[in-house]
């Protein structure tokens, strides 16, 4: 016995009912469930489709599909992180490294001629980065609503890119390093030039990370998604 098209649709509906909302994961699970059911029918031909489905589903354990979803999110999250770093590394090559040096020098000049303490600088970095993600959260919410209305299928890696995945944690790395470098309430003019250069570089690095996640990766999002899902264009 073979799974028919009506039963395939029931399997897709089953995955949606169990909180798998992304088409790529749904397809993978449907394929797995269908193969398992067909294997059961070889040994138990009289077993109903519904009973065979429940047998297969129990094999996923008490958390159902949750572990599968979490593992795929981790895997694609790591892929997205590698993409971020590949773009950032590009700023350490000609000609972009010239801009990196120029903006670092400009930041160093501004900080070395200010009387503000590092508290204001650290606060400014945090406000800038948090504001950036508040803006993205509103934007992503509107995009999800628009996609729901249009009935387009959802893809997990597409969502990770649009929501900037683990980029939030990566983006705070320069802030962590900055806080380690100098104590609170230190005036920038009191710092050793080498430390001030490092702080300037970290600030520019943070700006680059935001630029990469906001501009560069979205420009190539379609390419990255199609590379991950060859069937992406065919389905959508």
Can you give a write-up of this model?
By secondary structure, the protein is mostly helical. The protein folds into 2 domains: 60 residues; 160 residues, no CATH class. 76% of the residues lie in helices and 0% in strands. The protein is built from 12 helices and no strands. The two termini are 31 Å apart. The model has no long low-confidence stretch (mean pLDDT 82).
Topology:
Layout: H1 5-17, H2 23-43, H3 49-58, H4 66-89, H5 96-112, H6 118-150, H7 156-163, H8 167-171, H9 173-181, H10 193-219, H11 221-228, H12 232-235
Round the Cα radius of gyration to an integer and report it.
Answer: 25 Å
Q: Into how many domains do the coordinates divide?
A: 2
Largest sheet: number of strands, sense, barrel closure: none
Number of strands: 0
List the secondary-structure elements in sequence, H or E: HHHHHHHHHHHH
Unreliable residue runs: none
Relative strand content: under 5%
Query: Helix/strand-derived class?
Result: mainly alpha
Put simply, the count of helices is 12
Shape: elongated
Mean pLDDT: 82
Span from first to last CA?
A: 31 Å
How much helical structure, as a percent, in the residues? over 70%
Give structural attributes.
12 helices, mainly alpha, 76% helix
In short:
With 236 residues, the chain is mainly alpha-helical. The protein folds into 2 domains: 5-64; 76-235, no CATH class.
């Amino acid at each position: 016995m073979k799974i028919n098209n009506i039963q395939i649709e029931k399997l897709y509906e089953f995955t949606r009912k169990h909180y798998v909302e992304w088409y790529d994961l749904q397809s993978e699970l449907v394929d797995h469930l269908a193969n398992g059911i067909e294997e059961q029918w070889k040994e138990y031909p009289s077993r109903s489709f519904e009973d065979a489905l429940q047998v297969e589903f129990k094999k996923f354990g008490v958390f159902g599909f949750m572990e599968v979803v979490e593992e795929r999110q981790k895997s694609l999250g790591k892929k997205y992180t590698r993409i971020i770093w590949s773009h950032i590394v590009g700023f350490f090559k000609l000609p972009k490294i010239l801009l990196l040096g120029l903006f670092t020098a400009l930041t160093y000049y501004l900080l070395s001629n200010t009387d503000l303490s590092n508290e204001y600088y650290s606060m400014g970095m945090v406000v800038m980065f948090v504001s950036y993600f508040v803006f993205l959260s509103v934007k992503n919410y509107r995009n999800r609503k628009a996609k729901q209305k249009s009935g387009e299928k959802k893809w997990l890696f597409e969502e990770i890119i649009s929501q900037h995945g683990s980029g939030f944690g990566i983006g705070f790395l320069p802030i962590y390093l900055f806080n380690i470098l100098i104590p609170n309430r230190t005036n920038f003019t009191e710092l050793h030039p080498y430390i001030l250069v490092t702080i300037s570089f970290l600030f520019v690095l943070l700006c680059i990370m935001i630029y990469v996640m906001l501009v560069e990766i979205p420009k190539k999002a379609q390419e990255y998604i199609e590379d991950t899902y060859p069937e992406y264009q065919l389905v959508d």
